[in-house]
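Researcher: Before we compare anything, I want clean individual predictions. No alignment, no superposition, just each chain on its own. First chain goes here; please echo the sequence and then give the structure tokens.
Model: Echoing the first chain and its structure:
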Amino acid sequence: MYSFRWLCLFFFLSLSLCVSAFNIPRLGTLQRSYQHEPETIISPSSDEDLKTYYYTQRLDHFNYRPDSYSTFEQRYMINSKYWGGAKSSAPIFAYLGAEAPVDEDIYYVGFLRDNAPHFNALIVYIEHRYYGKSIPFGSWKKAMRNATTRGYFNSAQAIADYAAVLLHLKESLSAQNSPIIVIGGSYGGMLASWFRLKYPHIALGALASSAPILYFNGVAPQAGYYYIVTKDFKETSKRCYQTIRKSWSEIDRVAKKPNGLSILSTTFKTCKKLSQSYELKDYLDSIYTDAAQYNQPPEYPVKVICGAIDAAAKKTHNILSQIFEGVVAYMQNSSCYDTCSEMVMPIGHDRNDSMFPPSPFNMKSFVSECRTLYGVLPQPHWVTTYYGGPDLKLILHRFASNIIFSNGLRDPYSSGGVLESISDSVIAVSTVNGSHCLDILEAKASDPEWLIMQRKTEVNIIKGWIDEYQADLLALNHA
């Protein structure tokens, strides 16, 4: 599993989004592992401004077989508090849900809510099929029971779902002239950019935050992700970086002892005794990558980990004890630590200057795992065939418009993102210190100036799209 370093979601886009059968991290707008200050998640039903609806969605948008006309109920939510109404052609901000129930994103992804008053915009959140309450076949168990039912679980079907919901919404609100801006982060950011490319008649523009759309079919460098993780740690503390780098061989050394796995289990307080050393390596790998990916102010989790590791070095020369102190600081003190984490991180690492041991991606191994666990075969070339990838700058320069690709360069996924503007309207907005999807999270008083300016830039670009649209609409009505 340790060498199985590609987010299964990527290759399953064309056949089945990966659930957490692999004990590795995953893409996501929100950080899953780090314990922030206590916060209460408010359920959508408790928000007076948010109304929940269900759209009877078609199971298969691309086939004429009888079973393709089966349906399921897809959840979406609307906040009309700030909307200027259909008569004024006020815009619609649509958040495209990704690989999780949409509930938490509603409250943490504040970009729509923060900017809707200025635009008099309607806010819509649409849940991704097979997640939350938008599950076909009546239950998750039935939806995932075999390769046939899982076959409807892919990105092409998902963005076709969003198209159907948004067209239904415009019709029901008599809002045919209201421009739609689609917004998403991480995998959802990829969906937002692809939606604009595939459905330009529905979405006027897209904000794709931290969307690693180049991590397919060898377009982006395989080791790019882990290179940035290493860079983040090395720049935070060279001593910490060196300790982590040494720790892998130390784990191997201890594991080879007659009772080595027991020693490792005791040292790291694992909830279950380790059966292989790679379980611990996977766990530590995912902690470091998660911390780097979501290295957000004011906590800066990489600094938290390195601060604890460096402080421990003054008390003990035992490298693994130092590493464990980093785990405690990051995950917070607990009676035990579960190495079967739901965190995901992809790709291979094979650079000499990486703080991780060599572990290149192995396509043969990946295919074997997918066949064993899911009974289906990946299609690694389908994403670039369907959405594009190679020669992206050349093709999109003339073909595409009105897409913002936003990235923080401390985010390891930025190594697979669009970091240079492709045209006047396919624009890259990046910040040196930004992390994964930070720009679309709720604005806070403590936000640094560079983050405030990044969001302001994005808002001004969107305003320009809407102003141009309104001018075109006015000209057509008076023609």
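Researcher: Okay. Second chain, same rules.
Model: Second chain and its structure:
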Amino acid sequence: MDFNVKRLTADAGTFLSRAVQFTGEIFGQAEKTELDAHLETLLARAEYTKLWTEIIMKQTEVLLQPNPNVRIEEFLYEKLEKKVPLHANNHEQLGKHMTDSGHELGPGTAYGNALIKCGATERQIGGAEREFIQSSTNNLLTPFRNFIEGDFQAISTERKVLQNKRLDLDVAKSKLKKAKVAEARSAQLNSTPPLGEEYGAHFGYMLSFLHVKWLKMWAEEEVQAETELRVAQREFDQQAETTRLLLQGISTTHANHLRCLHEFVEAQAAHYTRCCQYMLDLQKQLGSFASMLSSNNNQQPSTSTSQASMLTASPSVPPISPSALNELHSSSTSHKARVLRDYEAADSGEMSLVADEIIIVSSAPDMDSDWLMGERGNHKGKVPITYLELRD
């Protein structure tokens, strides 16, 4: 217990001496030992490295995850040392909606099929984005964060120790200076002391003499002050060298960060190349739909005219051969049929049609001979025969 109290008292005294010295330096009332120019340059380079590493790291996090709420969630899970729940990214969500809508509208239709293909591509892009984020986190963010939380923390610790050693050195210099001043004034007064009854006439002299003696006691002996100064100077030099060696490691940090940056750029280039290839493949797949729609648009006036004249001349004659129609009516089997042109359902019992889509048709009992039962996915309804062409 006595040892702890003494140690606490010594630490409190040291802290107070440093605080007084630091305050005096701020107000220009105390001398300050300056670091050498090379060490100051190394310290400045370390500070700039830390500052820009934090800025690049934070902006990279924004790039990889633009949603701030998700970033906060990931940060909390990381601090709690728990696994971050898997969330679908924007491309994956869009791909899911496109795929679901394509199946709902009918995969046999041109539009539904195109939606399904776009959805699959968007999901591929989402998966590629997830891999790019993971690669960037491992190759860039993690090394940068390790530097901030590891290497630079060690530099900061040694820098604080160096600051304390410098304050101790300046305190020792100040104590030695005061001890020498007190010794000089004491020697000056002791060289011409008053004699006899003149002591009473020189009361001011006595006060000055006692004041000098008190200063000498407060500053300790000159020899002891010189010893403390030598110890403080040695510890300061050792700590300055330790800090310098640690700061020189910033060059290695820059080399490591350069490698991380190269890997990040490589991953980013591979990601964009991969996504570009996905989109080029999708563009080729959708090209057939575009050319088919273009040809349909160019042929639409003549086709509509011919179909209108055909219906006007013989409205009851379907484009389905009589034998195929009889077979369809006489059997309960289903057949595929291609829609010749768009048809808008007149009521809830009918099913709307889109040109060039493929549907399933069948005959139903007691149904008019000009109509069939159509099926597209989960949708069913009556469809006119004149709008269909049976497929094998």
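Researcher: What stands out in the second chain?
Model: The CA atoms of residues 154 and 298 lie 74 Å apart. Additionally, Confidence is low (pLDDT under 50) at residues 300-318.
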